[in-house]
């Protein structure tokens, strides 16, 4: 199979001597929705900046859809759309000009660029703003403009660095839907994120990077399955006087109406509901106490830090 991205022993040492990448291997399949996760300074931006030719690598091999970055840089650039963290469009251009002009950089005719721009601005909810000076857009709109601009030349690979940073919850969900749709239509997507929920919702495969090394490279489902225990908070319809015995689950009353239940893998919440119902208690609402991915992430990073000490 030809991978969308194939990275082999990639190293980056910045001029000041910081070893941002210490030899990473990574493969991403075509059509994947891939998350690159890691704490600040882990090397995520460096990795994607190398992919996008914004930063030169020190060592290693990078291939995009089978083409080597060293020998076919321009071809590789044409396959990639990138949405960096900072707003780097011309703030004094109207919205549609930002997108259309970018099409020009990639060799699209004005007519083609205009058509692509119209389509993308409509899909991203910016059509009404097409004549607005881009400086005047809200943060969330600017982020969407960056995405429209990145997609104007129909790249096969879209790379987003923290796409929903500064975007409010409602808009974030809209953006997730848009990204899921273009992924379903065939675009390979890589994103870096601090929002672990985002990776959990969107991504099929994941690499966790820490201190310039990949410490986990797996699919999201397997990763989540490795989390031994999950804690749920259950909000009940009446005060729970004394704790009903729930077989095989560890449960505690934390407020008169609120229960906390630990479940290990294989245990089902419906058993808990049944026991409670037997005591005349209905669960009105529930939530995960912690994000499983977040827990796992902390565990992996700690393990990796201990191992390197
Ligand atoms: P992340 O995106 O995971 O937060 P980065 O790739 O931005 O991590 O940074 C990795 C490391 O490289 C950090 O120690 C950071 O300080 C350093 N670094 C990033 N960019 C530069 C640069 N232009 N010059 C020197 N050091 C840099």
In short:
Helices cover 35% and strands 28% of the residues. With 309 residues, it is an alpha/beta fold. The site of adenosine-5'-diphosphate has 12 residues, from helix 1.
Summarize the structure in words.
With 309 residues, this protein is of the alpha/beta class. The protein folds into 2 domains: 5-224, Rossmann fold, CATH 3.40.50.300; 229-292, Alpha-L RNA-binding motif (Alpha-Beta Plaits, 2-Layer Sandwich), CATH 3.30.70. The protein has 10 helices and 14 strands. Strands 6-7-8-3-9-10 form a 6-stranded mixed sheet, with helices on both faces. The protein has a 4-stranded antiparallel sheet with strand order 2-1-4-5, covered by helices on one side. Helix 3 runs parallel beside helix 5 (139-151). The protein is globular. The two termini are 38 Å apart. Adenosine-5'-diphosphate binds next to helix 1.
Strand neighbour order, sheet with most strands: 6-7-8-3-9-10
Overall 3D form: globular
Class computed from helices, strands and strand pairing: alpha/beta
Considering DSSP H and I runs of 4 or more, what fraction of the residues is helical?
25-40%
Q: Which compounds are bound in this model?
A: adenosine-5'-diphosphate
Which architecture of the largest domain would the CATH scheme give at its second level? 3-Layer(aba) Sandwich
CATH class of the largest domain: Alpha Beta
CATH level 3 topology of the largest domain: Rossmann fold
Over the alpha carbons, how many angstroms does the gyration radius reach?
A: 23 Å
Number of domains: 2
Order of helices and strands: EEEHEEHEHHHEHEHEEHEEEHEH
């Amino acid at each position: 199979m030809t991978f969308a991205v194939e990275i082999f022993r990639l190293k980056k040492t910045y001029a000041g001597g910081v070893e941002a990448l210490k030899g990473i291997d990574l493969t991403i399949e075509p059509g994947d929705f891939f998350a690159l996760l890691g704490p600040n300074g882990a090397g995520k931006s460096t990795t994607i900046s190398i992919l996008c030719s914004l930063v030169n690598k020190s060592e290693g091999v990078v291939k995009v859809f089978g083409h080597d970055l060293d020998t076919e840089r321009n071809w590789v650039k044409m396959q990639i759309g990138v949405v960096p963290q900072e707003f780097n469009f011309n703030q004094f251009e109207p919205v549609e000009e930002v997108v259309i002009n970018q099409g020009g950089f990639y060799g699209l005719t004005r007519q083609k660029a205009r058509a692509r721009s119209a389509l993308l601005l409509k899909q991203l909810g910016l059509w009404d703003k097409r004549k607005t000076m881009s400086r005047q857009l809200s943060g969330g709109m600017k982020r969407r403009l960056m995405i429209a601009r990145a997609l104007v030349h129909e790249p096969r690979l879209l790379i987003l660095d923290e796409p929903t940073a500064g975007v409010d919850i409602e808009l974030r969900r809209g953006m997730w839907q848009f990204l899921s749709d273009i992924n379903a239509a065939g675009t390979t997507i890589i994103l870096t994120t601090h929002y672990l929920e985002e990776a959990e919702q969107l991504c099929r495969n994941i690499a966790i990077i820490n201190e310039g090394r990949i410490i986990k490279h797996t699919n999201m489902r397997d990763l989540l399955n490795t989390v031994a225990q999950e804690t749920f908070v259950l909000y009940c319809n009446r005060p729970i006087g004394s704790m009903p015995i729930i077989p095989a689950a560890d449960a505690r009353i934390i407020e008169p109406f609120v229960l906390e239940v630990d479940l290990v893998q294989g245990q089902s919440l419906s058993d808990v509901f049944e026991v409670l119902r037997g005591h005349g208690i209905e669960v009105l609402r529930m939530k995960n106490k912690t994000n499983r991915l977040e827990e796992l992430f902390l565990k992996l990073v700690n393990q990796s830090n201990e191992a390197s000490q």
